[in-house]
Amino acid sequence: MGFVLMGIGVLLCFANSGGFVKFMKLRSLERHGVEGEAVSDLQEWISSGHRVYYHVRIPGVPPQDTPPQFIEVGPEPRGPVGTVVPVVYDRRKPKRAKTGSLAEIDSSEERGMVMFFWVPGLTLIFVGAVLAIFFY
């Protein structure tokens, strides 16, 4: 019975692993984010909308061989290739970035989904492990 509960818990956590990664990125941007600029390098149309490749302009830093880049997937790009857009990036890791401003970043929606899946999932893993250890 313990192994079954652990398996169900792992499936619950795995079902929302993408949401967990997105929540961690948004939370990091809320805590350590800095507003700046990014320039779009390439735009591709994909089945779920558009994929846009950006590179971040970091003020006060001399031009680098390869500036930090990030990819954003969404319904509409913010302009043609070469457009300068406002961006929020993490000072510690500039590849963690999102177009927009600090005021627009809100991780509460993702937090709710992470709590909905991960709390019961981790609880089932723990209870299953205890049952497996004591009753196997």
Strand content: 25-35%
Q: How big is the Rg? A: 20 Å
Distance between the termini: 9 Å
Q: Largest beta sheet, briefly?
A: 5 strands, antiparallel
* Quantity of strands, as a count: 5
The helix count comes to 3
Keywords:
136 residues; alpha+beta; five-stranded antiparallel sheet; 5 strands
Describe it for me?
With 136 residues, this protein is of the alpha+beta class. It has one domain. The protein contains three helices and five strands; from the N terminus they run ααβββββα. The protein has a five-stranded antiparallel beta sheet. A hairpin with a 2-residue loop joins β1 (33-46) and β2 (49-57). It is elongated, with a radius of gyration of 20 Å. The mean pLDDT is 90.
